[in-house]
Please model this.
Amino acid sequence: MTIKANSASKSDASSQDEMRSSQKILDVLCQNTHMQFGVIRVIKDKSWSNWCMYDYHSQLLTVDDSQEYIKVYQEIRVGLNPVFIQDSNLCGNKAWREILNGVGMRSYISFPIIDKNNIILGHLSFMDTKPVHFDNEKLSMLLPFCGDLIAIDFIKVFGLRYTNIILDNERKYSRKRDIILSSLAHDLNNPLSAVKMLSQFLKEKLSDEKHKKVAKRIEDSSLRMKNMIDDILDFSIEKMGIDSAIKKEPVCMESLIKQVLDEFAPQVIRFVSLRINIHRNVICNKTKIGRAISNLISNSIKHGRPGKKIEIDSYIKNNNFVFQIENHIIRTKSKSFQNLFSPFEKSEQSDGLGLGLYIVQQIARIHSGEIQFILREDKITFKFVIPLVDQVYNCTN
Model:
């Protein structure tokens, strides 16, 4: 009988890494049994296949199914009991003797791999072309222990494969979900913009104060909805990884910051202290940086103490553009700041999606920058920092 040691795989064992521990076990057992070939078979979904085969002399591992071995395994076994044949010529079972001699084998060991519920998981066997005299008492202790180790290996590998299948399916589902969210956000933006423009038009044209308040409420609600849609859109684009190569251009940050600030309600702006000391343009994606600034201002308004000043400072330092915003907060024992930049993290009072600061962090990263926060007593300071590129442009408003 010739057992070929090659890399072709017909079994569930898909990689050498998965069988490394099994190979070590076979190596130890072949050394103790003084037999050349060691084989581990596994049963999965009621189907038997080779887990791995080991040639102790050449130190080669294979997962190739040997038809000769399959015949030996199928014919020479006694239920869940082990079989020990030191010399086939001395074997009292004529049929077994003829099978072994027919494939050129003289010695054989068969040992079932079973779990704690006495259910067979696989099979462990050894063969040699010459008679081998082994210590049955020693093997009766060693084989069950090694069988348990192999059973653990089966459970670990199959569990890992099952987990990988679940993760792969989840990735596919997540990508499809993000595509749907992205499409939905795009489709909702146009009608929502129309609602916002109409509410602004009505607010300017209506003379009745009650009607103006209704129009203002519609405008505020549409703005809040637009922010949520933009969050979903930015989140889905980032998760799909389709926005890695963003367009960058020289941007006058002073103009951009003032433009973003003007989008907030006048009653909010009067609580904002603004200091800008930037005398050059910054190479960046204007839309995304505007989004990051808007999210940081919105976060300070939502979570800051009502009526307290929000302080905004923007400047160039150490060849970095810095947008810094500081506001007063209400500290509570239950309030945690550990997951500020995790997606969908929000306070109980928030009516948003909890994506604002996460998106700020992603925007900073695609500009090779970062977002930091500093907590001091009842104040929190966010610093949005992105490095400047070599080109220098004069800033003109």
